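Before a colleague's protein record goes any further, I have to sign it off. What it holds is a sequence and that sequence's fold in token form. My question to you is simply how this chain folds and whether the tokens agree. Thanks in advance; the entry in question is below:
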Amino acid sequence: MELDSFSAVKQMVLQNLGIALLPSRFVQLEKLQGTLVAIDISQGTFTRPTLLAYPAEKANDLRLASFIDWVIHIMITDGIGKSFSLLFD
């Protein structure tokens, strides 16, 4: 699904309707509150800080973990990102 508003995308993630690539400035409060988990994927060729955000209650979801591993693998394989770090609050 495509939306034109980062706020709308964030609300969908918070409602457990998926995960999203978002600029870090749009999820700072939710990271501090512990309602979203964010993986920093801004290193490499990205020109903006970009995060893969998902609801905190999905932190132990094996299907999500598998998807995250796939995204990281693709990012590294395609040279889009060189290193990733998990952000924990």
Summary: Residues 33 and 89 are 8 Å apart (CA to CA). The two ends are 28 Å apart (CA to CA). Confidence is low (pLDDT under 50) at residues 81-89. The helical segments are 6-14, 28-33, 62-77.
